[in-house]
Amino acid sequence: MSSLLLLLLFLSRASALEFRYHDNREMERYLVQTSESNPDITYLYSIGQSVRGQALWVLALGLSPRRHTVGIPEFKYVANMHGNEVLGRVLLLQLIDDLVRGYRNNEAWSSQLLKSTRIHILPTMNPDGFDAADTDCLYSQGRPNNNGVDLNRNFPDAFAGLRRTQQLEEDQRENEVRAVIGWLRTESFVLSANLHGGAMVASYPYDNSNGGSEQVGGASVTPDDDVFLHLAKVYSHSHASMHRGNLCSDTRPFLDGVTNGYQWYPLSGGMQDYNYVWAQCLELTLEVSCCKFPPVQQLPALWTENRKSLLAFIQQVHLGVKGRVFDGSGVPVQNAVVEVRGRRNMCPFNTDRHGEYYRLLLPGNYSFTVTYPGHEVLTATLTVPHGPDHYSAMKHDFMLRRTTTGRTLAYPTSANLTPTCNYTLYLEAGGAASGPTWTVLSAGLGLVAVLRYPIG
């Protein structure tokens, strides 16, 4: 073996990410190094700061990591929302390492994912909680943020009788929650998961209910329940053992390793319901370890058990249909309502600032209705294939026609709406204030971008 090859092998092994718990500063250094070394496929930015002023770093991966590309769906993973539930931090750092090395080695699985998807990874949403955590499996401190608030109970809740005045009181929510809300307004995320610990199950919305028609057999069922169940089973059945459903002695068994959130236990102010209702992003809560702080020696095996699931779940962002809506002049329009018959979403799905829509759907025939002021209502029946195997959802653009009467058509009401749905009409526009501003700072090892959101 040549000395050059030996040197390359040594450098490859030396640069491999260690299986251990990196503290917040070490994590930041790793993300900066990865971004600096791979500027063509990665981009590091911050969505805000924790209560104690620690940056909430996100690494975007893709062939156009700095900005959205029309037709390329946005996906995200979030971990460590509860500071003492720590395996997700390790899994997401290993996932970054795996994706980058796979792409550099010209491995098809990584190249296809990065070519077809823009992937955002937030390894810790609660760095302050992590700093306060100890290593007890079940009862360790560090779950809340530095103000003692459980971040997964602090989001606006569609079932809590919200009215507009309550929704706009974002300055009263925790820093970390406001950062995520701003993030959701800036990127049109399609699919997401947040990683937790203390159980082994894939949980899906709704997490809450007000006793209305959404309650079915003890569950709180969304209009997209079939898609959510599919997504949860993709993770649990791709996992080495989660699908068995009876892995943790202190939790009840879960059929197929999945559960409706409300049927497991109701919670108000959860992040996955917020993503779905207001941001049009289907999100799961993935409980990935019985022990909230697994021993270090178990980390390699836990990564192996979850790796296939993490990758398979990303691929599901290509379910269903995607496309754009154009007005009578051929211009793509924001806030056109794109509804699917039989799916009476609390807040209708709207096109983003690029005129794009994404609807995650299982294979089948679906009737679409598209509504935009000043234009005729458009209906179409589409036959939707299975997209993930081809790394692309079915593409279909809607071309609208102006009304001849000059009358502006009102938006349809998709359901008996509890929240104020125009809350999302400025998605990607930074809210009522001006859009987000970008600044550059020195992070020790180089220059990285920081996104600062106006709040209010």
Describe this structure in words.
The termini are far apart. A hairpin with a 6-residue loop joins strand 14 and strand 15. Strands 9-6-10-5-3-4-2-1-19-18 form a ten-stranded mixed beta sheet, sandwiched between helices. Strands 11, 13, 16 and 17 form a four-stranded mixed beta sheet that branches. Helix 3 crosses helix 11 and helix 8 runs antiparallel to helix 11. The chain contains eleven helices and 19 strands. It is α/β, with parallel strands linked by helices. Helices cover 26% and strands 22% of the residues.
Give a quick set of tags describing it.
single chain; 456 residues; alpha/beta; ten-stranded mixed sheet; four-stranded mixed sheet; 22% strand; globular; disordered N terminus; disordered C terminus
Low-confidence stretches: 1-14, 408-418, 423-456
**Strand arrangement, major sheet:** 9-6-10-5-3-4-2-1-19-18
Strand elements, count: 19
N/C terminus separation: 62 Å
Q: Output mean pLDDT.
A: 86
What overall form do the CA principal axes indicate? globular
Tell me the helix content: 25-40%
N-to-C series of helices and strands: HHEEEHHEHHHEEEEHEHHEHEEEEEEEEE
Structural class, judged by helices and strands? alpha/beta
Major pleated sheet: 10 strands, mixed
Helix tally equals 11
Radius of gyration: 22 Å
Q: Regarding quaternary structure, how should these chains be classified?
A: single chain
Strand content: 15-25%
